[in-house]
Every structure is written in C-alpha cells, then in structure tokens.
Amino acid sequence: MKLLTLNTHSLAEADYEHKLYLFADMILKEQPDVFALQEVNQTITQAETEPGHDTGYRSCRDFDGPVRADNHGLRLAGLFKDKGCPYYWTWVPAKVGYDVYEEGLALFSRSPIEDTSQFFISRSQSFSNWKTRKVLGIRTRGQWFYSVHMGWWADPEEPFMLHWDRAAEQIERRESRGEGAWIMGDFNSPSDKIGEGYDYVKSSGWFDTYDLALEKDSGITVAKEIDGWREGGLQAKGMRIDYIWCSQETEIIRSCVICNGSSYPVVSDHYGVMVITGQE
Fold first, then answer.
1. Banded pLDDT at 79 (limits 50, 70, 90)
2. DSSP structure class, residue 219
3. H/E element holding 241?
4. Packing angle of the helix pair 72-82, 16-30 (nearest 10 deg)
5. I want to staple 56 with a disulfide (CB 3.0 to 4.6 A). Which of 82, 88, 100, 229 is the partner?
C-alpha cells in the first residue's frame, strides 16, 4: 500500500496553475492508494457547484456546505478523471484562510470510500478564526485514514497537546474495534524538538512510519521560512514536521520526501511524504 501526504498551500501558492498540473502528474505516475491534503482551498467569492459522482466525490458526514468551482480538490479530481485514473475523494472546510479562501482538508482514495468522519479538535469552532482546527477521516480498505493540520506546541489559546488529545480520543474509539488507523498531515511539530509535539504523539502509542521504514531519506519537509515559523528563524538544516503515523506497528518498506525538487518539482511551501507499506 502506498500513502502520501502534502500541505498543498493550493490557491495561495505562487504560480498555482502550473503547480496544480505538476502535482496531478506526480499523482498519476505514483498512484498512491490513499493520499491526504491540507490547506485545500476554494475562493469565497466563487460560484457553488455540484461535484457529482462522476468526479468520485462523496460529501463528508455532517457537512452540507458548498463546493465551489475553483476548489483545489475538485480540480484535481477532474484532472485524474480526464486522464483515466479516477479517485474517490472528500473535502471539508475548517476556517477562512488569508481572508479570501475557505480552507480545509481533503482525502483521496483509489478504492471506494465506505464511511467518512469529521470533527473539531480546537476549542474554537468559529469559521472566521484562523486557529480553528478539524480532522477529516475516511474508511476504506477496512481501515481509517485521517488528514490533519495541527496547531503549535506553545500556542496559549490552541495548544498542540489539546489538539492531539482530542484527535486521539476520537480516532482511538474506532481503533478499539480492531480497525487500523493512519494519521497523515502537517503537525507543526519538528521531530528534533525534545519534549514537544513529536515526542507527545510518540509517547501516546502511535508509530512514526519514518522510524519504522527500512529505507528512508532525510525526512525534511520544510526547507525555508513559512507562515507560522518566521519568529526566531528556521534551522539551517530544515524541519521534519509532516508525518504519516500508524496506530499499529507495521512493516514500512520505504519512506521518502516527495515534491522537493529532486523527486518531482516543488509544488508547495511544504514537501510531501510518501510511504510504501508491506500491506497489499
């Protein structure tokens, strides 16, 4: 099984149209079984549209809001369909981004989506608050897969620890039924920050697929200054803040950074992470 995650930056990214096609081409070549995206935007002023089953869209449970014409997930789904490699997908917004976008999370699957889930992990549930956070999940292949975009460890209003505790509580209810779970996304927690978010997730019993991988690279997913990490500068060696975690220890054949300029062109202010597991 091949999994992938990327914080896309999507419509906010410079030269968006070109990067949209570059990313779609990469997906068509790699054909991950499931992939998770964060910062999946649509413009607030764009017209509403009906994605339709022909695009593979499945509305997420408890979400009845609009999908707009320039929705990043919708445009990707259309490109995949046109190239004869359709994906099933879902999307949910969490907040207003950069004052002009409805920003959310998306999940794509090559196999049909059996169920969906979404829930808040932040104290705030205000759509206008940029610190509002959600988790999006799908059930497919007999397992749950989640896309997340976490807050920061020391945020006084929305601390990472609160977000993770709420996410883990919801997700582990399903795990207690014996269904494996995968959490993929931007955790805003550098792996080398001792005693902070990365260590907190690991100590809660989840497995970092990078650690489990038989073959791996540097793992660096951010190599320049980005929003949220400008104060105090960025370590010269970059940061590993995007992860794929699994609830059960499993065979991971390979973990690699993707869309970093060496393995496919850069398409976002983050690089992606792709893992190949021992599962079919």
1. very high
2. -
3. none
4. 50
5. 88
Q: Is 279 exposed, middle or buried (0-12, 13-18, 19+ CB in 10 A)?
A: middle
Q: Answer yes or no: are the C-beta atoms of 88 and 33 closer than 8 Å.
A: no
Distance in angstroms (rounded) separating the CA atoms of residues 24 and 131: 29
Q: Is the dihedral of CA 44, 46, 50, 54 positive or negative?
A: negative
DSSP 71-132: -HHHHHHHHHHHTT---EEEEEEEEEETTTEEEEEEEEESSPP-EEEEEE-SS---TT-TT-
98-115 CB burial, b ≥16 within 10 A, e <16? eeebbbbbbbbbbeebee
Beta partners for 109? 34, 88
Whole-number pLDDT of residue 223: 85
- Written as six digits, the tokens of 204 are 């809660």
Q: Which residues, at least 6 apart from 223, have a Cβ–Cβ distance to it below 8 Å?
A: 238, 260, 271
- Euclidean distance between CA atoms 193 and 191, whole angstroms: 6
The residue among 137, 116, 240 whose CA lies nearest residue 183 is: 137
Between 41-50, 70-79, 165-174, 181-190, the lowest mean confidence (pLDDT) is in 165-174
DSSP 192: T
pLDDT exceeds 80 at position 235: no
C-alpha to C-alpha distance for 212 and 102, rounded to whole angstroms: 36
Contact 198, 189 (CB under 8 A): yes
The reported pLDDT for the residue numbered 161 is 97
**Amino acid making up residue 85:** C
pLDDT tens per residue, range 239-276? 999 999 999 999 999 999 999 999 899 999 999 999 99
**Strand 242-246, strand 207-208: pairing:** antiparallel
